[in-house]
């Protein structure tokens, strides 16, 4: 079949998300009041006509399994193909254990039988689950085919962290150098989003594993860069990688800006999420809700400003919430004051408590905490 097959990586890796990953892997981190981070990449694929998606998981993946279920929310519930969940423990015999993946190539080698037997499409799009972006992947595929590239790497001129991968492009868009861990980052920052032919991917995975090589970035992009036709697709629209508590907070607060919301949630490429059957949110006549994103099922009787509230959050009378991100079923009791706080699910803030973080150092409360 012509078209793309999606592969999303969502396994444990070093991040600075701390308490937010105590009960989940990074792709299932809640964001924007109604979404999980993985919803963005899944929606990008579905909007580009991708009918089959495999998600490689490892670690604390129960939250991800519960969220994705059978893929119905993304129109990926099918008798043949659709959404396929690929937890590492189900393929332990392929790698002699279920320890952490050393890299993307090792993760792909773990599910090599899936790649060989179940990928029906001519091309594969590889993506991480920690990227918040709304990109027309069908345009990227057409550019890939027209250029005759072996691998198309989506990148941006917007700088990021020194640990990111950076490309140098020539005038034709070909990648002439790949580097990472740069002291002074320069070039185009990789978004870890790649398109390549299915048969090439299988060949590269087999070759790398035959030589005990496991890194897509080092062993393929760097070591094979001179042999392969690597091409950069420059995307300068909104793209945010969620990797630390601070950038999670910053990117979440950016969603309060109308221009960024308009770009991320454009009607021609909608972002899909798991359905909710919660009742409508109630805002008390004596309460207030200013410049905030509020999910269904909330009960707001106090003051909420510049904040993001997920389903079932309760803010009692006299309570003040400003610059906060409150996950599902958090309760802020009477006269409590919160500023720059990220509260995971089922957190209870008792009456009269004052929790003061800072926009440059938000306070994080772990799941089920009571303060």
Low-pLDDT runs:
none
Radius of gyration: 21 Å
Whole-number mean pLDDT: 92
Assign the CATH topology of the largest domain.
Spore Coat Polysaccharide Biosynthesis Protein SpsA, Chain A
Apparent shape: elongated
Please estimate the helix content: 10-25%
Oligomeric grouping of the chains: single chain
> Per CATH, which architecture of the largest domain?
Alpha-Beta Complex
Largest beta-sheet characterization: 9 strands, mixed
Q: Please give the count of helices.
A: 9
CATH class of the largest domain: Alpha Beta
List keywords for this structure.
alpha/beta, Spore Coat Polysaccharide Biosynthesis Protein SpsA, Chain A, UDP N-Acetylglucosamine Acyltransferase, domain 1, 2 domains, 9-stranded mixed sheet
Briefly say what this structure is.
The protein is an alpha/beta fold. The protein is 21% helix and 28% strand. The chain is elongated.
Word description of this protein:
With 371 residues, the chain is of the alpha/beta class. The protein folds into 2 domains: 261 residues, Alpha-Beta Complex (Spore Coat Polysaccharide Biosynthesis Protein SpsA, Chain A), CATH 3.90.550.10; 84 residues, 3 Solenoid (UDP N-Acetylglucosamine Acyltransferase, domain 1). The strands form 6 sheets. Strands 1, 4, 5, 6, 8, 9, 10, 11 and 12 form a 9-stranded mixed beta sheet that branches. It has a 5-stranded parallel beta sheet with strand order 14-17-20-23-26, with no helix packed on it. Helix 3 packs across helix 6. The longest helix has 13 residues. The relative contact order is 0.13. The mean pLDDT is 92.
